[in-house]
Design a protein that fits this description.
By secondary structure, the chain is α+β, with helices and mostly antiparallel strands. The chain contains seven helices and four strands. The chain is 46% helix and 16% strand.
């Protein structure tokens, strides 16, 4: 099992997610999206696992600033997510080809 937790700004769900894995002594790799961002391959894998719609944080200030509503769910939207990781809903937890967005302990329990 190779768990990656992609985190953006520190929020309650991110804290709960990290605590959930630590309490169960499940090793995970923490990836700071603000520092590292996503690669094209990582984004493609996440889109296949959860869909583009689930990845976009419509409440983020960057969503309004960058007029993401105008871009819709297109190739342009994927390029915007790569260039501006603040648009991603976090935490994103990935285990190989499987992924979740947000706090989803039931799904993670099934992985272990």
């Amino acid at each position: 099992m190779n768990i990656q937790v992609f985190v953006g700004k520190k929020n309650f769900d991110t804290q709960k997610t990290e605590r959930w894995f630590k309490e169960r002594r499940i090793p995970f790799q923490r990836v700071d999206l603000a520092r590292k961002g996503l690669s094209r391959g990582e984004l493609d894998a996440l889109v296949r696992a959860v869909g583009l719609e689930a990845l976009i944080d419509r409440d983020a200030p960057a969503y309004r600033t960058l007029n993401m509503a105008w871009h819709g769910l297109s190739q342009e939207a994927e390029a915007m997510l790569l260039a501006h990781p603040a648009l991603l809903k976090t935490p994103i937890v990935r285990n190989g080809r499987q992924a979740t967005v947000g706090f989803c302990p039931d799904r993670w329990e099934a992985w272990t």
